[in-house]
Every structure is written in C-alpha cells, then in structure tokens.
Automatic annotation (TrEMBL):
Residues 11-253 form the Luciferase-like domain. GO terms for molecular function: oxidoreductase activity, acting on paired donors, with incorporation or reduction of molecular oxygen. Gene3D superfamilies: Luciferase-like domain. This is Luciferase-like monooxygenase. CDD domains: Flavin_utilizing_monoxygenases. To bacterial alkanal monooxygenase alpha and beta chains. Pfam families: Bac_luciferase (PF00296). It comes from Hymenobacter sedentarius. One of its GO terms (cellular component) is cytosol.
Length: 356
C-alpha cells in the first residue's frame, strides 16, 4: 500500500501521578514535571492528568493544580485533564479554573470530562454533598460549560471570567456506550478508558462514529484510545516490570489500593484465581514487551480500532524505567501507520476549542 494511504498516529501520555512505595506525593509531582518535559522533546501531543480521590496509590486528586504546574514547566505540550470528574464540581467553577489556565497558557489546555466519581461512593458523598446525584446531570453540565465558554454568554447574569470566549477544547471521557452516545450527540472528541475498562471498547467506538453529529468544535469523529504500555529492551524485562501494574489493579479490585509496589518474580502468591481473571480482564489492552513485540501488537490494535490517537499509561515502579518506556514508545509508533478509513468515519484533524 502506498504512503498516501496512511496517516500519522498521534500519541500522548495519561499520568496517574502514581505514588511509589518508596516515595511521597512531592516526589511524584517532581517526576510528573520531569516526565512532561521529556515527552515534550519526544514529540508527544498532550499530557493529561487524572482525577482520583482517597487512593494511597495516586496523587492526582487536584488535576487543575497539577495542570498549571505541568503547563508552567513546559512550552509546547498540550496539557489537560483526563479527566475532570464533572459531577464532583460545579460547571461554573470548572469554567473559571480552565479559563484561568487557558489565559495563562493559551492554545495549550485541554478539558477532558468524565462522569465517574474517581473514588469510592463514600468519598464521592464527601466531595459532592448535596450534588450526590450529579452524575445524572453530566450531559446538561457539559452543555452548561459550553455556554460559559461561549462569547454569546457575555450578556448572561452568570459569566465565567476568565473563560468566556476562550479556545478550550472539550473531550468526553468514557468507558461505556452511554458516553459514546453523548460524545456523538454533542460532536465532541471521545477518549475511551480501555486501559482499565476494555469491555465495551468496540461497541462504543462503533456507536460514536455512526451517530456523530458535526459541531463547531469537530467536523468528524476523533477517537483517543487509552492503553497501558510497559516497554523495555526485552519481553522478559517488560513482563517483570508489569507486575507492578498487576499489583496496582489487584489493589483496586480488593478495594485496598496501596502505594505502587516494586516488581515481583511471580504474582502467584499474591492473587486468587478469580482475582487473576478479573485483573486480566481489566488489563486486556495492555501492551507489554520489547519494541518488536509492541510494534506487532499495537499495529493490530490500531488496525482494529482506527484510533486517531493513542494515550499511554505506563504504571511502572521505577521512575527511570517508566521514562525509558515512554522513550521507546515513539520509536515503535513512528513505524506504525493506520490505513485511511472510509470517508467520514474518522478525522485526523486535531479538535478545536469551543466556538459555540
């Protein structure tokens, strides 16, 4: 097939801001900034930070603060939320916060929005208070955000200043077909959490593309697929490093997330068969191995999903090994091309900001 039948694949980072067993949140934040600076030089498109609460393994409970920290320490990298869990926050406050970020770092801020609590239900109650049913308001809250960012809102009684009229692209995050329908109806780019909830990936992508309605932000569907990546010089080393990720997910399943643990030679003594099966299902789209192995497996994934962009999570205990994994990934992805799909199904154009 000729080169004209292929188009480049964007690649990005989702940083969970993991807290390793031998470190503190302050160490994590220093590593996040250093990693962002490194991946900026490696050609990564964006660097997103997640929102999680009450987790001893994750330091990203305040992504808006971390986004400012990362954006202030980089120059060209797009920085954003992967995502802001919108039911936890009033849309006006989110609009003002991201309006402030976009004013400080124009053209570099993304606002990814999710409907999950990013925590257990007891913690969600503590965060949301009287807004505990806010997940049901997710579609309306996104539209309210769009209104606050719109220049047309200048005559409204309630305005987002800063925020009003700024170019802040919105992204719908999801792990189900519900989010796919919503992203399609609103004409927004769609980021699927296949790094921990892979079950509905393909039905969701089909629904999103078939039901997509063009919007002022996006003319055609744009899909970001988030996947786990553990890259190393050999398959054996990558498999060994990946046991930290397996322990991380095991803690999630048990409801007892602990700081990120060092690799082990065998997981056999750490989990029961049912737990092993559950972790395996959650990590179905994890790409672990040498460059050759990753190239083979990621090429197949890209061919199947026709994703416009891959967003990599590298949950690796050693910070140096994590950096190296992110260094190897672009070497793999630049050798991966995806064939042009049928007209209208996928757009390679980067999403624009809110122009409503």
């Amino acid at each position: 097939m000729s080169p004209d039948n292929f188009s480049p694949l964007a690649f990005s980072v989702l940083d969970l801001a993991p807290i390793a067993a031998d470190s503190t949140p302050a160490d994590t934040f220093r590593h996040s900034l250093d990693l962002a600076r490194r991946v900026e030089q490696l050609g990564y498109t964006r660097f997103w930070l997640s929102e999680h609460h009450n987790m001893a393994s994750v330091a990203s409970s305040a992504p808006v603060v971390l986004i400012g920290h990362i954006a202030g320490g980089t120059t060209t990298l797009r920085v954003g939320s992967g995502g802001v869990m919108l039911p936890n926050h009033a849309p006006l406050v989110v609009a003002e916060q991201f309006g402030t970020l976009a004013s400080l770092y124009p053209g570099r801020i993304d606002l990814g929005l999710g409907r999950a609590p990013g925590s257990d239900q007891v913690t969600a109650q503590a965060i949301r208070g009287s807004r505990f049913g806010g997940a049901q308001d997710f579609p309306r809250d996104i539209q309210q955000l769009q209104t606050y960012f719109s220049p047309a809102n200048a005559t409204s009684t309630v305005r987002a200043i800063p925020g009003e009229g700024l170019d802040i692209p919105l992204y719908v995050l999801g792990s189900s077909t519900d989010s796919a329908y919503l992203a399609a109806a609103l004409g927004l780019p769609y980021a699927f959490a296949s790094h921990f909830a892979p079950g509905q990936l393909f039905p969701a992508l089909e629904i999103y593309r078939q039901n997509f309605r063009p919007s002022a932000q996006l003319a055609a569907p744009y899909v970001i697929a988030c996947v786990n990546v553990v890259a190393a010089d050999t398959d054996a080393e990558a498999q060994w490093l990946s046991t930290s990720l397996q322990q991380f997910m095991l803690g999630v399943i048990k409801g007892r997330p602990a700081p990120l643990q060092p690799p082990v030679e065998s997981m056999h003594a750490l989990w029961e068969p049912a737990q092993q099966h559950a972790v395996g299902q959650m990590l179905a789209y994890s790409f672990i191995g040498s460059k050759a192995t990753l190239q083979r497996d990621l090429q197949e994934f890209v061919d199947q999903t026709q994703a416009d962009e891959l967003m990599a999570v590298s949950t690796i205990f050693s910070y140096e090994a994590r950096v190296y994994s992110y260094e190897l990934l672009p070497q793999v992805l630049r050798n991966i091309a995806h064939s042009q799909p049928e007209a209208g199904l996928v757009s390679r154009e980067q999403p624009k900001g809110n122009k409503r």
